Every structure is written in structure tokens, then in C-alpha cells.
Amino acid sequence: LKGPVHLAVDLGASSGRVIAGAADGGKIQLAEVWRFENKPVRMQADLLWNHLGLWQDITHGLRLAADQVDASPLGEIASVGVDTWGVDFGFIDDKNQLISPVRCYRDPRNLGRMQDALKRVSREEIFAETGLQFMEINTLYQLLAAQQAGDVGYQHATSLLMMADLFHWMLSGERTIEATNASTTQLLSPVTGKWSEKLLGAFDFPSHWFPTPTQAGTTIGEVQCSVATMTGLHGVSVIAPATHDTASAVLSVPAEEFAPAKPDWCYISSGTWSLMGVELPEPKVTKLCAELNFTNEGGVHGSTRLLKNIGGLWIFQQIRAALQRRGSAPSWAEMVEAAEQAEPFSLIINPDDPSLLAPADMIDEICSLAGRTNQRVPMDDGVLFRGALEGLALRYRLTLESLERLTESSIKTIHIVGGGSLNALLCQMTADACNRTVVAGPVEATAIGNVAMQMIGSGRLHSIVEARDLVRKSFPTKTYSPGNSRVWDEPAARFAEL
Ligand code: ADP
Ligand code: LRH
């Protein structure tokens, strides 16, 4: 890499990576330095993140990056920034210690907490304050779970840090909450960008846990001495990217405009989750939005990500995990190939069925779901794989209709970014089911968005439009044209009945 190097630590729910990025010759060049698995850990009844293991992988990756850049005469490391999934958090006490484990949003302790919350504050009021999709995983309900459980972290914390903020704190010693991740809590107003005092008060959450959110692109501090000794990152700035991975992914969608009022494109950030939506200049905290249960999350430079959280390739991942337990270990490519050969529409799965959020065994759960919905129980793996992918494409079709209603605009192009953009069958199914052109890529959208925001923060790039220009010049995309979309009509009707 030539020129100043920005290190993106990008943590997804299924894997993490340290990626080095630099702007060189009118393009963004990336080098993947370290990639590692990320998996929650079950301990007794709890589901926890292995934050120590993640920190170890992060520092290992940073050390490798420092060594590689040191060995090259071309660049030097200017900054580092972390993005992660939303909603999860850790507690820090007055002795600067992380107290209590970091829980995974699929932790069973959260079950039923949304109903408890709605007994204290009405759904209408929570939506009016936050404009967010109601999901049991939201920070609001997780905090309520911690409060009700008498959680030691909850009782002794002086700060609450979202997952990416937690790693920024480990890197720099600074406690901040970055705005895009703060917007996933369901405690922040998308209109003012401030915390909802009404909700903090109603739920008795300590207001000092909620400082003014830091904007993406802000320099938080420097890599602290102890970490610099470990990693070699002496004098390197810590710059907050859009720390919510989805916000970073949306930043690097290869579109030509930024936050149009009437978008003719939408995105699907496709990984463990599928986040399908549009980027708008303003939030839409409307009755229709509440009815359709869409979310107004915060995007970069004051934009809104109006989107739907859809249970994404999680099902595909968990089918593979279940097969691994049974002794077989197909690759993604093998799973896609088997799905391609399976009979179409023989099993319709709603990826948002609550029973699929955290089942003990995904294959057993899908078989029992098939029984409960009067469908044939899948007898071969290809049918399972295909059902998971068709279910997503059908969900996208419904979501697209809702998006067009919400924005009163007609969407022509669907950009798919993230790991799912490598799944050619899913991309083609999406084009067919939605009857729209799909543009797939870049795969590493999140890391690219992370690097781009660090470039903006350090003054090397000046706008999102400029960043997207670079993305288009730097990373190839693949276009899928819609084929026979009529064959999706009948399955779409069956899906709607589910
Ligand atoms: P997350 O950030 O949520 O961990 P990613 O964006 O890394 O997710 O996407 C991971 C998913 O991408 C995998 O679960 C898999 O379904 C899909 N994927 C990755 N590589 C391939 C591939 N070569 N072919 C098909 N699908 C792939
Ligand atoms: C995607 C994601 C999504 C949700 C979920 C918890 O990785 O960040 O936007 O917030 O994870």
C-alpha cells in the first residue's frame, strides 16, 4: 500500500478482520491482514461474546499490520477504527474495569423483555421517541433484562459502551459512544440525535451512561502506550468510523448520490443479518413506518438509514453448523450448488420466524417449523439450503414493496453488499423475486466504509459522494438482471400467509 494507511477493524457476528486501506492512484487499495472466526459462547443459561478472544485477535491483527507496513517503504499507519454489529454493549466501572460479560443479543435472558417494556411505556410512545423497529434484541430491552436480573455490571457501571466503543476504549482509554451505533439502542431520537430523556426516565436508566454521541469521523484519541507496545502502533490516531457495521456498509454502496429524497436504489447489507433499506436525508417517523415496523437508524453525515432488519444468512450459517455437528462440513459453494439443484419452492421459510432466532439446532427447528406450517418436512440438504435462500428473496420482495410505499418512489436497482453478495444464486433469486436489477458488491463493504470514514475524518477525502466515486472505481460489481419473476407470485402468496 502507498500513502497513509488506515486500519479497519471490522467485526461481524460470524467473523472479524483487520484490513489495511489506503487511497492510491485514484483508487482505494485494501489488504486483508488478519481474519478470524467470531462465535458467541454458551455458558450455563447465557449466551456471551468472547470479548477477550476478540481483543486478542484484534491486537494480533494490528501487530501484523504494523510489521507489514514497517517492512514497506511506501506507507505509514495513520489511524485505526473499529466497527461492529449493533445493539450489544459492555459496562465499565469507576476503576476503569470492564464488569460482567458482554452478552450476545441472542441471549435467552432477553426473551419477553420487550413485552415487559411495553407495559411501562406504550409502543406508540417508544416509536415516536426513537423511530426504531421493534426487536427483542434492541439495547433497550437488553438493559431492562440487566436491570431486572440485578446484573452486577448494571449496578456498578459508570459507563455503558456499545461493542465498537468498547474496543475503542481498549485501544485508546477513551470512553465514547458513536452516533450510528447509538442509534440502534432504541433510546436515541433520530430527529434530534439526542438521547430520549423521556425513555431514560421512564425506564430508570442512569442518564450519565448516555453522553452526547460522537460523530463518525471524529478523532477519539491515540493508541494508548500499553497497546502501542503490544501492537507497534505508536502515535497512531483512533478515529471513529461509522461504528455500526451496517452504517459503514451503506457508506460504501457504489451509488452515485448521497441521501436522495426520492431514491431509485436501495441496498441489502447481506451477512448474518440482511439489512434492506434506503438512505434518506431525514428520518420518517410516521404511522406507516410504525405499522410496517421499519427502522430509522442513523447514517453518516446526518443521513437516515430507513431499513428493515431481516434475519439473513444466519439460517444458512446455522444449517451448516448443524451439519458440522452431524459430521459433514460443506463449503458455502457446495451449499449453493446443492440449493441450485434442489426443487424450487418445496419449502417456504420465513427468515424472521421467532423460532429461528436462536434454536438449539437449526435443522431440527426447520423440520418442526415445516410440520407446524403444514409443509413437507425436508428430506435432503439441498431443499433446506434452497428454502433458506428462497425465504430471503421472498422477504426482500415484500420489503421492497413496503420501501416503495414508505418513500413514495420507485426503486430500480438493488445493491447487495457484504458476504452474501458472493452468493450468485441468492443474488439471482433476489433479482427474479423482486423483478429488479441487482448490483452485487463490494464484498468487504463494511471494512471499506470504515476506511473511507477514517479518510474523511483525517481530511484525505471530503464527502460521501467522493468516497463512493472511489469505491466505484476501485471494486468490481456484478449485475444480475431479473428473469422470470412471475414464477415467484404463487410462492410469494404462500409466504404472505405464513
Ligand atoms: P457478518 O459480517 O454478519 O459476519 P459477512 O458479511 O461476513 O457477515 O457474510 C458472511 C456470509 O457470507 C456467510 O454466512 C455466507 O453465507 C456468505 N458467504 C461468504 N463467502 C461466500 C461464498 N464464497 N459464497 C457464497 N456465500 C458466501
Ligand atoms: C448487522 C447488525 C444489524 C443489527 C444486528 C444486531 O451486523 O449490526 O444492523 O444491528 O447486527
What does this structure look like?
The radius of gyration is 22 Å and the shape is globular. It is built from 19 helices and 18 strands. The strands form four sheets. A seven-stranded mixed beta sheet has the order 14-15-13-12-16-17-18, sandwiched between helices. A six-stranded mixed beta sheet has the order 3-2-1-6-11-10. A three-stranded antiparallel beta sheet has the order 8-7-9. 39% of the residues lie in helices and 20% in strands. Strand 2 (15-24) and strand 3 (27-37) form a beta hairpin. It is an alpha+beta fold. Helix 15 crosses helix 19. The site of 6-deoxy-beta-L-fructofuranose has 16 residues, from helix 10 and strand 13. This is Rhamnulokinase. InterPro entries: ATPase_NBD, FGGY_C, FGGY_N, Rhamnulokinase. Residues 6-251 form the Carbohydrate kinase FGGY N-terminal domain. Belongs to the FGGY kinase family. Pfam families: FGGY_C, FGGY_N.
What general form does the structure show?
A: globular
How many runs of DSSP E, i.e. beta strands? 18
Low-pLDDT residue intervals, each spanning 5 or more residues? none
The value of Rg in angstroms is 22 Å
Report how far apart the termini are.
51 Å
Chemical compounds bound to the protein: adenosine-5'-diphosphate, 6-deoxy-beta-L-fructofuranose
Return the average pLDDT rounded to an integer: 97
Number of helices: 19
Q: Please outline the major beta sheet.
A: 7 strands, mixed
Strand order of the largest sheet: 14-15-13-12-16-17-18
Helix content: 25-40%
Q: How are the SSEs placed, and which strands pair?
A:
Elements: E1 3-11, E2 15-24, E3 27-37, E4 41-43, E5 46-48, H1 51-70, E6 75-83, E7 89-92, E8 98-99, H2 113-120, H3 123-130, H4 139-149, H5 152-156, E9 159-162, H6 163-172, H7 179-182, H8 197-202, E10 219-222, H9 225-231, E11 237-239, H10 245-251, E12 265-270, E13 273-280, H11 287-292, E14 295-298, E15 304-311, H12 314-325, H13 332-341, H14 362-372, H15 381-407, E16 413-417, H16 424-434, E17 437-440, H17 445-457, H18 464-474, E18 478-480, H19 489-497
Parallel strand pairs: 1-6, 6-11, 12-16, 16-17
Antiparallel strand pairs: 1-2, 2-3, 4-5, 7-8, 7-9, 10-11, 12-13, 13-15, 14-15, 17-18
Helix pairs in contact: 2-4, 10-17, 13-15, 15-16, 15-19
Bound molecules: adenosine-5'-diphosphate and 6-deoxy-beta-L-fructofuranose.
